[in-house]
């Protein structure tokens, strides 16, 4: 869950590999296909570089995981798509894309929100925390460690959203019992049904009093 | 999603002028205020809403909850639902509102959704949300397939032969019972709207959901001073224990004097085309002993004009039991 890795042509990340092969396949099928035109936002590079041109794009700055990101976004770009497609922090997942599943949960100014129902433009100047900003594989956030210890997942697709919700919950009014945790975690759907272990993971952190 | 222009007005006046250029403040509005976005962005993705201009009001000074000189409460338009529900005064004096908000949506959505946005929350009717289907609310005159179709969750009170869509809000049900006042600033100045006058019945114009006109900006909501000693209950019945819209809900604000009901306000959710205040149930209870027989009579009065659809006849009895249980819970404390 480390931050975005620097691109290394000799040793591409899984995402870069998939992205490259996907582009090649598409280019083979449709000669005129221009992959960047499909993007709705882009990170602004150093002054000397020229980023992709997006008609009507608006410059914004998001402080994501403690690092300022200067971006140009099409006004339609959701915070979710901006985080995943422009900043390339793909730990935040797109599930339903309609605010019903919680997979895209991130923190904006320390409060949990579903990033799919928010425009990136609305958050100009705001502090965003994603799963990559919580901890690293070497130094996990207590909640990440607790999910691991309690086996709070199966397929893992909802996990980053679950953990972002659980970390925010620690600072919210919440009764001590499991029922209160279930109620406040109800916005995060787990298709595998790992709920019992998720509740156990959250309660373990609350009982330890860590991560608050 | 259709493309649009994103603007952030500097102040209230600029926001009203910009929004005043809209052709309508109802379905099909080409200019929309953007607050939490939880309804609007969702519906823009579905292309149910296709505004050409969004006015972001999140940085206007409407994010405060303030005490009123008369003991009431002033709630800013962009106060987040979670902040409202967890506010100490609201929890102490307007508990029905806190209970209602916390029963709705999820913690994430409550962190985003706002007071004014919740007032304007739109129906979850599947035909409204699907542009492949006809819908008189979305496309006036196109028809209402819900009446002969999937209508299990739809309304039984306040319906017409043009629309049976349920108002999905929990917050509004509590505000109806609390007799909140909605404060609006528009091109012709400021005005107040009693809660019961704000939402419109569908009638023959289901695309008109509120009395708002182009340029009208909800600035805040006020709650009258709390009734001393009043008991507050919001009971919500639904298919899941959490994170689901109501099949039936009831908001009760009640004062008891020596076992008799000296004051009561009742509103129902999940069953009406608008947040459903029930003066009939209130009249049936006022001055009467607080007992099960009178509660049942009030529930019968509240649902007397209910008109079920093919799949939601069960809601009539469900709503009655919901109300009687809420009333009994209020008495039990």
Description:
The complex is a heterodimer of chains A (212) and B (333). Chain A has 212 residues and is of the alpha+beta class. Helix content of chain A is 33%, strand content 13%. Chain A has seven helices and six strands, in the order H-H-E-E-E-H-E-E-E-H-H-H-H. Chain A has helices spanning 14-29, 35-38, 79-86, 142-150, 159-169, 178-184, 195-208, and strands at 41-43, 58-64, 67-73, 105-108, 111-114, 127-129. A six-stranded mixed sheet of chain A has the order 1-3-2-6-4-5, sandwiched between helices. In chain A, helix 4 (142-150) crosses helix 7. The longest helix of chain A has 16 residues, at 14-29. With 333 residues, chain B is α+β, with helices and mostly antiparallel strands. In chain B, the strands form three sheets. Chain B has a five-stranded antiparallel sheet with strand order 4-5-8-6-7. A four-stranded antiparallel sheet of chain B has the order 9-10-11-12, with helices on both faces. In chain B, strands 1-3-2 form a three-stranded parallel sheet, with helices on one face. In chain B, 54% of the residues are buried. Chain B has a domain at 232-332: Enolase-like, domain 1 (2-Layer Sandwich), CATH 3.30.390.
The CATH class assignment of one domain in chain B is Alpha Beta
Helical content of chain B stands at: 25-40%
Supply the CATH architecture of the largest domain in chain A.
Roll
Overall CATH class of the largest domain in chain A: Alpha Beta
Oligomer status: heterodimer
- The parts of chain A where pLDDT drops under 50 for at least 5 residues are 1-6, 23-39, 46-51
Strand content of chain A: 5-15%
Strand and helix order of chain B: EHEHEEEHHHHHHHEEHEEEEEHHH
Q: Main β-sheet of chain A: number of strands, strand sense, barrel status?
A: 6 strands, mixed
Strand arrangement, major sheet of chain A: 1-3-2-6-4-5
Helix and strand run of chain A: HHEEEHEEEHHHH
């Amino acid at each position: 869950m480390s931050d975005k890795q620097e691109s290394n042509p000799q040793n591409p990340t899984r995402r870069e590999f998939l992205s490259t092969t996907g582009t090649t396949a598409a280019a083979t099928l449709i000669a005129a296909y221009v992959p960047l035109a499909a993007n709705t936002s882009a990170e602004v590079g150093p002054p000397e570089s020229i980023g992709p041109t997006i008609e009507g794009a608006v410059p914004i700055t998001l402080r994501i995981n403690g690092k300022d990101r200067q971006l140009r976004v099409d006004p339609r770009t959701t915070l979710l798509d901006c985080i995943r497609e422009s900043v390339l922090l793909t730990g935040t997942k797109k599930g339903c894309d309609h605010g019903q599943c919680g997979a895209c949960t991130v923190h904006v100014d320390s409060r949990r929100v579903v990033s799919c129902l928010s425009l990136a433009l609305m958050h100009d100047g705001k502090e965003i925390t994603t799963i990559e900003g919580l901890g690293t594989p070497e130094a996990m956030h207590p909640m990440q460690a607790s999910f691991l210890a309690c086996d709070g997942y199966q397929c893992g697709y909802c996990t980053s959203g679950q953990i972002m919700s659980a970390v925010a919950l620690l600072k919210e009014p919440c009764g001590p019992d499991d029922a209160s945790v279930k109620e406040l975690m109800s916005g995060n759907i787990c298709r595998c049904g790992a709920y019992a272990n998720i509740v156990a993971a959250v309660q373990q952190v609350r009982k330890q009093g860590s991560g608050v | 999603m259709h493309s649009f222009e994103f603007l952030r007005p500097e102040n209230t006046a600029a926001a009203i002028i910009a929004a005043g250029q809209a052709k309508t403040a109802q379905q099909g509005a080409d200019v929309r205020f953007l607050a939490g976005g939880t309804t609007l962005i969702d519906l823009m993705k579905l292309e149910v809403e296709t505004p050409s201009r969004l006015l972001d009001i999140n940085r206007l000074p409407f994010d405060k909850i303030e005490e009123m000189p008369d003991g009431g409460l002033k709630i800013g338009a962009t106060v987040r639902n979670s902040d409202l529900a967890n506010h100490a005064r609201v929890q102490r004096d307007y508990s029905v509102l806190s209970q209602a908000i916390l029963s709705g949506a999820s913690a994430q959505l409550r962190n985003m959704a706002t007071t004014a946005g919740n007032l304007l929350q739109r129906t979850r009717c599947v035909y409204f949300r699907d542009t492949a289907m006809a819908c008189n609310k979305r496309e006036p005159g196109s028809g209402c397939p819900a009446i002969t179709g999937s209508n299990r969750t739809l309304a039984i009170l306040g319906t017409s032969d043009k629309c049976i869509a349920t108002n999905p809000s929990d917050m509004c049900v509590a505000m109806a019972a609390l007799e909140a006042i909605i404060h609006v600033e528009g091109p012709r100045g400021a005005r107040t709207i009693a809660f019961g006058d704000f939402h419109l019945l569908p009638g023959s114009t289901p695309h008109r959901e509120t009395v708002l006109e182009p340029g009208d900006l909800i600035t805040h909501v006020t709650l009258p001073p709390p009734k001393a000693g009043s008991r507050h209950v919001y009971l919500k019945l639904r298919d899941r224990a959490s994170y689901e819209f109501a099949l039936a809900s009831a908001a009760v604000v009640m004062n008891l004097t020596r076992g008799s009901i000296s004051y009561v306000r009742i509103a129902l959710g999940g069953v009406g085309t608008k947040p459903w205040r029930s003066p009939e149930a209130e009249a049936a209870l006022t001055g009467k002993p607080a007992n099960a027989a009178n509660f049942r009579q009030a529930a019968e009065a509240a649902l007397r004009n209910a008109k079920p659809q093919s799949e939601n006849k069960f809601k009539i009895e469900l709503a009655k039991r919901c109300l009687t249980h809420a009333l009994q819970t209020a008495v039990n404390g």
